[in-house]
Amino acid sequence: MIGALALLFVCQLAGEAVLRLAGLPLPGSVIGMLLLFGWLALVEKERPTLEAVSAWLTAHLSIMFVPAAVGLIDQGPALSRYGVGLVVATALSTVLTMAVTALVFRWAARRGEPLQDAGA
Amino acid sequence: MTDLLTTSIFWLSVTLVAFETADVVSRRSGRHPLCHTVLLATPALIALLLATRTAYPVYVNATQALSFLLGPAVVGLAVPVWRQRALIRRQAFPIALALAAGTATAIVSAVGVLWLFGAPRAVLASIAPRAVTTPVAMAMASQLGGAPALAAAIVLFAGVVGAMTATPLFDRMKIRDYRARGFAVGVSAHGIGTARAFQVDSTAGAFAGLGMALNAVATAALLSLLALLI
User: Fold this and answer.
1) For residue range B89-106, what is the model confidence (pLDDT) as tens digits?
2) Could you read off the pLDDT of A26-57 as tens digits, one per residue?
3) Phi and psi dihedrals of B147, rounded to 5?
4) Interface check A6 vs B, CB under 8 A
5) Nearest 5°: phi and psi at A116?
């Protein structure tokens, strides 16, 4: 349990360090995610505790961002000025992205499958 | 007595109780997207802050124990992706292509439409990561000079829209492949879309979870690249 937490913490710490050294505008936690992925590939073994800990964290993500969401309290000006634009842009973008992604996936799956079968 | 209003234990208690109450309502609604727990808990907490005349920085400070966990939780998103590596390898071509198309479409369409409304850079930076899971979106928004709270609200709204429109949209488009449907809803509507996909079909759910995780990385990478160029 502590080992799994330590792995997650150290990956984030390393991510924060890379962020500072390389000056990438990528969040430290996202770099940490990539580093953990690399670590899992490098040291391949069963990790039931890490799976349990990360599954628990993922299952409770919602409550962790509640404090940030409450920050809307200070976003009154932006919301009243650009509220309509935000709603329209978000809704349009969400539907359009689903349509484009699904169409491209279906097209590529049809192209790719005969090739894969020949290779396998 | 009133000094309790600035303590962690007060605001953590209040936040957990508000969340749990909202969660009961959400469960009773059969997890309807409009009754998402955060969507119900946040306005209640804002009302309480206003009623007690508590400044937001005080609340943030008091609830740091919760926000702190976001970092390790994001790092841990690598684990489910790692577990799906066989699936990714098998479907590498459609996954890579659809991911690239989806990531670019989400960013360009959201920023483009909002730009037409004349929004300034800070607001555009808040909508740019609108398709990724909330913790990553908040981190990206603040990296780009946007507002994490605004990003969180936008991301939640996108999730609700995605979860509610996915099935009628794909049916109308005659897309019956559950891999394509799931992946698309995960890329565009992150965790809320993924939860919806699991309600419909387990293959759709697995592909949605994959789409969500991969899009978090792809969007973060693409936005960082854009930030370096602009």
Assistant:
1) 889 999 999 999 999 999
2) 788 889 999 999 999 999 899 999 999 998 98
3) -110, 120
4) no
5) -60, -40
| A36–B41 CB contact, under 8 Å | no
- Interface list for B 88-127 with A (CB within 8 A): 90-91, 93-95, 97-99, 101-102, 105-106, 109-114, 116-119, 122-123, 126-127
Q: How many CB atoms lie within 10 A of CB B69?
A: 19
Contacts of B125 (CB under 8 A, 6+ apart): B141, B144, B145, B146
Q: How far apart are CA B94 and CA A108, in angstroms?
A: 5
- H/E element holding A46? none
Domain positions in chain A: 1-64, 66-112
Query: Which residues fall within 8 angstroms of residue A97, CB to CB, at 6 or more apart?
Result: B102, B105, B106, B109, B131, B184, B187, B188
Tokens of A30: 């996202």
